Amino acid sequence: MSESSDFVTLTAGNTSLVLNCAVGARPCILYWGEKLVQSDPALLLRMTSRQHAPGSADAEVESSLLNETGAGVSGSPGFSAHRNGTAWASFFRVTEVRQSDTNRVEIVCEDKTTKVRATHLIGVDPGSSVMTCQTEIENIGTDGLAIDWCASGNLPLDPRAKHLFGFTGRWSGEFQLEEVAPFLGSYVRENKSGRTSHDKFPGLVLGAAETNEQAGPCFAFHLGWSGNSRVRVDRLSDGRAFVQMGEYFFPGELSLAPGETYRTPCLFAGFASRGFSALSRKFHHHLKHTIMDDRIQRKPRPIHYNTWEAVYFDHASDKLFKLAEKAAEVGAERYILDDGWFGARRNDKAGLGDWWPSEDVYPEGLGPLIKHVTSLGMEFGLWFEPEMVNPDSELFRKHPDWILQAEGVEQVPFRGQYVLDLTRPEVSEYLFVHLHKLLSDHDISYVKWDMNRDVHHPGSRGRPAISRQTRALYALIDRVRTAHPDLEIESCSSGGGRADYGILQRTDRIWTSDSNDALDRQSIQRGASHFFPLEIMGAHVGPETCHITGRRLKMEMRVATALFGHMGMELNLLSESQDNLNILKAGIALHKQHRALIHGGDYYRLDTPGHVNAVGVVAPDQSEALVSWCNVTGHNETLPGRIYVPGLDRSKSYRTKIAWPKKVRSVSRPSVLEALSLNEEGTVLPGEALEHVGLQVPLLHPETCLIYHFEAI
Q: Is residue 450 among the annotated active site residues?
């Protein structure tokens, strides 16, 4: 608490958050942005006071942390509730402020008329300076309270943040950045898929007109939630603008009995004054060290081999054994047996829910394959889709009532499967028992937890249940992790359909997309990097001809794309040429050589022309860097431009050379490279020149990539 009890100032890193929370008043954010050292909050209040706007209320109603209807605010309310159609105009006033340390505060508010208490839980992380915001609603009345909408917070936007970027996409094309032209009115994205979704990731990035990757003020917001969501930005005609994020509720989904509480998902918000890449690094730090509690830093991220695109449902024992041997030979460190190992799962229309090894395919169980894999020095992982059931399964025939469904409505299957109702204790217990037995009976160190459909008709016991279903999922995963603390879990949902900070609180990796097309992956991984660090983004080398897009790409390009992620393979190694296997093995060796840098360095997206995607990682001590320059398509200019390498020590010089591909002539005319000896022992270049003068890029073939390595001397 600051000197005046009317204000709270939270400061971390280069960020300050000033809250106006006088008892008896409505709480609001007075300032959020660049760190303030000497400014008096009372002075800030006077500096930001606005004059009366013509044609408006006699006195301007300030926005609050919930922007509630009863205060007479303009714009969208952040809280909407009622008691059977009455008590709908909430008006919260501060009753108590609790601050146990300098980085967190709880602001308790109450509306004595509608009998609702709202507690705002706000923090600024000392390591990343990312702000967290949640709202807890308590029914302090004597009858039920129906909640239609409750934002995690109503956050004011800096007037400079005129340029908005949202996220759209589709299956196999997630995390596509969508620029929204400056507007007056509302930008609203509502996700009703029952998972984070492929097309409406709950995140926003905003900047000033001049902001780019390395310079300018910018802001980002993400709702850490794996269910339905609403994201909205309101720009009012009086010049103010606000961001709200929270759960999307179906009618009647959330009702509180007297004394019950509801807490929103966490809204994460970040500010940076030096460009979008700096902002992403803050979110990466917060995810790795605060949300995930450093658990993925405990050992190097193993190179994966996943069987899916090599075998699909053809689980021939001899082939699986040989694939394991070949995977170990090229450098894999973890072998994941994907879909098709259980029950009657010979295709995608049967078997889900019957979580025991198929006696037809695995007459001796999974033990022999697991023993073979581990004898080769690899960990063993296994695919599950616990939340789903096929009509053609023993589980469904025995318990057809265990699925989510709307009473009296015929439900059309999605991918030939239904969604189990995890809110029923007996369902969650059934799933835990079967997962626990498999994990206890076998040497399984990794689970790929899949979820392959949207949730339609999400009813349970007559009411919508996505909110309860999502929390039940969290509880089930938490229970599995408690029973198996060394287990690692990947969150997959037809690719990147369930990737968010809520699921990553209890998992270790996201499957970024089902598409292994390296060109698609360039934009997918770049978009995802706004909130997710490389070491949790699954990135696999797929087959030469992508099974989803049909595009053919060279092994060098596929390796270069997978190298900047949690690297793995998903192709039939038994049918690859020896030349391709040698290239793959060299690429995996390069990733291992630089794995600590790729997964522990500071991440940068470079500002480049539209036909190029360039990204890099710089060691925290600026001792080395890797930069990838990918020529995604052809270009209009006769010759390409230069790489301007950010993040290096300007006072040092760096030995500069091409790290990938090993045969540079396969992607480029070598003249520029030979002039600088970049494709041999490298050449020494000043850090300041690399940043400000830039390094000329050679003329590259389309759909090719160069990776540069810079090492301080």
A: yes
